[in-house]
Amino acid sequence: MASPVVIDYYSDILCVWAWIAQRRNEELNAKLLGKIEWRYHYLDVFGDASNKIPNQWQEKEGFTGFSNHIQKAAAPYPDAPINTELWKSVRPKSSANPHLVLKGVELTLGAHVSIELALLFRQAFFIDGKDISHLAVLFGLIEKAGYKADEVKRSIDDGRAIAALMADYQQAKLLTLKGSPTYIIDNGRQVLYGNVGYRVLLANIEEQLKAPTNEASWC
């Protein structure tokens, strides 16, 4: 059996476009069962949300304007419901804490659990309207999912989790990624960014699956 195509997936947990992309990622998994290896990474889009949003949207009603914007962005996508209170009464100060916890989960509970909990964190924010910038909320979600948070907390206490997160942030800058979500397919052969359609993603991945590893370059 051929090796799976590796997708380095960079996103910000608070990004509406990454939330919209979630359903497409699930469809890719279902269609290409066992042929994709996801590697989740995080980048800094809403690391300072409490200042970024009112500053960038000060001419457009601030948080209220941004809230209306994400509602409109998600409206065509029924699989990406949005809580009406997001960025109105629910205003996470930063995406850094959920990113930090997810890197801690990856280090202690495994990459697959981290991917699972990334979805749970997004659901808690976008559907349930929880402020996932609070560590207590995040650890509560971990425990509710049936996992122990103690090891994750230790990875934060001893610096391992923040080191892994900084590695993600620095790599995103080194690669000059434009934003969230970004798909880097097969070690950079394809880089797809933003609101990319399912068929475009599928076509690019299938092309990588078909291409022989020893294929000569035309250059």
From TrEMBL:
Name this polypeptide is given: DsbA-like thioredoxin domain protein
Organism lineage: Bacteria, Pseudomonadati, Pseudomonadota, Gammaproteobacteria, Alteromonadales
Residues covered by the DSBA-like thioredoxin domain: 6-202
Taxonomic source organism: Colwellia psychrerythraea (strain 34H / ATCC BAA-681) (Vibrio psychroerythus)
Molecular-function GO term, any one: oxidoreductase activity
Domain of life per record: Bacteria
